[in-house]
């Protein structure tokens, strides 16, 4: 069982013979011991230590240890630019939101990726998920990096801020405050090592306006403003991959006219802001999905009619006219398995997958029934205000159980070892299946050709300066 260090002295003692700090950086003395036990202690300390300085020190150690063994946070931008030039094609990049058991789930992703020689895999977390899963960017990148170290992965890590979204109601009430909240999150994420950021200002599209250009104006103007901020903050040598969005997931399906209106306005704005500044690398669209799927009264998920023609058309226009990688599909993890091989065939650049993995964890026969019941009772006690009059109990639980992940994070991370391993194997098999369907098997060499990660300096904690 992992040790959680509660002081810097305990942490330093735990490093003895395995890691050493020399000239402001980390050197690995015993990689076998690092992977077998110390990395478990470091990540539990980074997440659960009651002492803020100890948590921060453990997070710095994980990131710099990753760099020492060849694991560096990277931007996927060069690969997406190659896709925009049509030098690379034929696969759809999976972007995986890990809401629960982040350390163990990330290990399952890495195992599946390594086994299948997969190159581009994005690990992401959305603004809303950060809150209800209680995972700030520094914690999330620590858990993913630690997972990479644990399984022996070496190479670039694509960490992404997903749906860094402007809330429409809060924006209407106080636009300055809401935009600043998104800017603060972008700053925090970049500082933590997230070099891929998806801006979502599509919530501000106003379909009541007559002209498409007018509908998209606030969307593209604010996206350009946030892009300019990102370019100002990105580390030397790194060009952060920025995503835009033209249609809110769950709303009406996107059109080529909307894409062109958004891009025309956006490109004009960033030209004014930064001359030859690089813009977005991809565009998220709505093609018929809903985040998490639509639960039926019995708790099962309704079948979705996905418009693949929209995806194909928008992806092609995005590449040919604007040099983007293509369209991005959100809300896809609950689609039927037979749908996934269609995404590479339609030229979809990226697909976001989240709720399906959460469902697999909750519904696994290896998940302790007593803990699941405890989480559900908590939800019914604390969140009944979110239940619609038309919801059955099954629908209500399905839609809100994600909000039990943060309050029960410690219990989840401390599941019995047998349960963690069994759930991890189930997830690994699903990741391998998806990687095959999305045609990213045997793409490691492609990533190696285009992605050259930069070792970004990270300030050493005061506790280690001596």
Key features of this structure:
two-stranded antiparallel ribbon; alpha/beta; 466 residues; TIM Barrel
Describe the 3D structure:
The chain is of the alpha/beta class and 466 residues long. The chain has 20 helices and eleven strands. It has an eight-stranded parallel β-barrel with strand order 4-5-6-7-8-9-10-11, surrounded by six helices. The chain has a two-stranded antiparallel sheet with strand order 1-2. Helix 2 runs antiparallel to helix 7 and helix 5 packs across helix 18.
Estimated structural class: alpha/beta
Q: Count of DSSP E strands?
A: 11
| CA-based gyration radius | 22 Å
Share of residues in helices: 40-55%
Q: In percent, how much strand structure appears in the residues?
A: 5-15%
The quaternary organization reads as single chain
- Assign the CATH superfamily of the largest domain: Aldolase class I
Main sheet, how many strands, which sense, barrel?
8 strands, parallel, barrel
Between the first and last Cα atoms, what is the distance in angstroms? Answer: 30 Å
CATH topology of the largest domain: TIM Barrel
The CATH architecture category of the largest domain equals Alpha-Beta Barrel
Strand order of the largest sheet: 4-5-6-7-8-9-10-11
Query: With helices defined by DSSP (H or I, 4 residues minimum), what is the helix count?
Result: 20
Q: Give the count of structural domains.
A: 3
CATH class of the largest domain: Alpha Beta
Which runs of at least 5 residues are low in confidence (pLDDT < 50)? 291-296
What form results from the Cα inertia axes? globular
How would you state the average pLDDT, rounded? Answer: 93
């Amino acid at each position: 069982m992992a040790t959680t260090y509660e002081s810097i002295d305990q942490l330093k003692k735990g490093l003895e013979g395995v890691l050493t700090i020399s000239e402001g950086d980390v050197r690995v003395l015993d990689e076998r011991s690092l992977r077998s036990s110390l990395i478990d202690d470091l990540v539990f300390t980074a997440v659960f230590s009651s002492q803020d300085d100890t948590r921060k020190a453990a997070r710095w150690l994980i990131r710099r240890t990753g760099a020492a063994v060849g694991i560096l946070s990277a931007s996927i931008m060069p690969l997406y630019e190659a896709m925009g030039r049509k030098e690379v094609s034929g696969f759809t990049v999976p972007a995986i939101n890990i809401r629960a058991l982040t350390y163990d789930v990330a290990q399952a992703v890495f195992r599946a990726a390594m086994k299948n020689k997969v190159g581009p895999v994005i690990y992401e977390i959305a603004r809303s998920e950060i809150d209800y899963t209680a995972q700030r960017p520094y914690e999330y990148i620590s858990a993913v990096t630690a997972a990479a170290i644990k399984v022996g992965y070496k190479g670039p890590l694509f960490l992404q801020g997903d749906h860094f979204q402007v809330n429409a109601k809060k924006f209407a009430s106080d636009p300055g405050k809401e935009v600043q909240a998104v800017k603060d999150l972008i700053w925090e994420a970049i500082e933590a090592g997230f070099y891929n950021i998806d801006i979502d200002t599509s919530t501000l599209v106003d379909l009541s306006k007559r002209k498409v250009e007018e509908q998209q104006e606030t969307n593209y103007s604010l996206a350009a403003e946030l892009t300019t901020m990102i370019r100002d903050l990105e580390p030397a040598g790194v060009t952060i991959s920025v995503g835009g969005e033209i249609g809110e997931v769950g709303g009406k399906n996107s059109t080529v006219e909307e894409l062109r209106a958004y891009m025309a306005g956006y490109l004009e704005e960033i030209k004014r802001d930064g001359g030859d500044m690089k813009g977005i690398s991809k565009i998220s669209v709505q093609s018929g999905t809903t985040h998490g799927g639509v639960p039926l009264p019995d708790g099962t998920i309704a079948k979705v009619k996905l418009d693949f023609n929209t995806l194909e058309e928008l992806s092609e226009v995005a590449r040919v006219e604007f040099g983007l990688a293509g369209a991005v599909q959100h809300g896809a993890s609950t689609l039927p398995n037979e749908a996934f091989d269609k995404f590479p065939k339609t030229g979809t650049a990226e697909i976001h997958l989240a709720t399906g993995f959460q469902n697999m964890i909750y519904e696994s026969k290896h998940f302790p029934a007593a803990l699941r019941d405890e989480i559900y009772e908590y939800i019914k006690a604390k969140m009944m205000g979110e239940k619609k009059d038309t919801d059955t109990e099954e629908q209500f639980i399905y839609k809100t159980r994600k909000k039990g992940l943060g309050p029960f994070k410690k219990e989840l991370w401390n599941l019995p070892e047998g349960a963690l391993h069994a759930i991890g194997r189930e997830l690994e098999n699903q990741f391998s299946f998806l990687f095959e369907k999305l045609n990213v098997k045997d793409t490691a060499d492609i990533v190696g050709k285009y992605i050259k990660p930069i070792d970004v300096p990270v300030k050493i904690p005061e506790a280690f300066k001596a």
